[in-house]
Amino acid sequence: MTMETGTQQTENDVPALQKGLKVLELLAEESGLTPPEIERRTGLNKAMVFRILRALRHHGYVDLDESTRAYSLGLKLVELGAAASSHINVVSVSRNVIDQLRDSLQETVNLGILRDGRVVYAAMAESHRSLRMISSVGRRDNLHSTSIGKAILAWLDPVEQQSLLALHPLERRTDATITDPAEVLIQLAESRNRGYAIDDQENEPGARCIGVPVLDSANRPIAALSVSGPSTRMQPERLPGVAASLWEASKEISRRLGYSPDSDHTEQELHTA
């Protein structure tokens, strides 16, 4: 295996995409450019600029001023930027919170976000114990078989739940994995009422995980936290106490993001709002 620098590796990758990004970067520098101006500034030919602008406009990445025939960046980029900023902020403000939670519970703590119908592990603090559950930052996992995925789903409305569950086949990871969508929806309702989601050896044999969402000011899940460990240590009687610690961590992360839930809310109100 050989190693290449990022520049060497991407110079010739997906030429059309490279040209489209060049147009977007130009419009980010200077808004309101006509196709001839874009051709001159990018060095791209007329046909290529036309095709790029047509595709970008179709997907909402650029807008056309019909009166001047000039193009500017579209609202889709604002949406993507806001989403990226939110996820980056969640990771940055969560770092020492999940470290402290790991030290308190002596188990692995994970922070996950929703991406394309999958869980993406965005940050984690591994247990110091020799027998522990670990994953890796950037890894994708299922919504229906993980406590993080179920914690996010459980705090969404039923229409969103069904839509997300329909994006991918419900893979059977272990003998305990629930793959019937109707049964998953029942489990999500139970998770919401209980105040936390459980992965009871559904994603990995011998592992039991518990998860709660990180909620924004509208009580929508922007991420989720989980604690995972061997089922021999994560006994059922321990889970409510772990859940309480997870909710404290979740509220602290939300506070750091600028959210101010009513301090008079009870835990149950926060769980079921």
How would you describe what is shown here?
By secondary structure, this protein is an alpha+beta fold. It has 2 domains: 14-73, Orthogonal Bundle (Arc Repressor Mutant, subunit A), CATH 1.10.10; 83-272, Beta-Lactamase, CATH 3.30.450. The protein has 10 helices and 8 strands. Helix 3 packs across helix 4 and helix 5 (75-105) packs across helix 9 (239-256).
Secondary-structure map:
Layout: H1 6-10, H2 15-29, H3 35-42, H4 46-58, E1 62-65, E2 70-73, H5 75-105, E3 108-115, E4 118-125, E5 140-141, H6 147-154, H7 158-165, H8 181-194, E6 197-200, E7 207-215, E8 221-230, H9 239-256, H10 267-272
Antiparallel strand pairs: 1-2, 3-4, 3-8, 4-5, 6-7, 7-8
Helix pairs in contact: 2-4, 3-4, 5-9, 6-8
Enumerate the spans where pLDDT stays under 50 for 5 or more consecutive residues. Answer: 1-10, 263-273
* CATH class division of the largest domain: Alpha Beta
Note the run of SSEs as H and E.
Answer: HHHHEEHEEEHHHEEEHH
- Structural class of the secondary structure composition? alpha+beta
Biggest sheet strand order reads 5-4-3-8-7-6
Please count the helical segments.
10
Strand content: 15-25%
Question: Major sheet, described briefly?
Answer: 6 strands, antiparallel
Number of domain units: 2
Q: Rg, please?
A: 23 Å
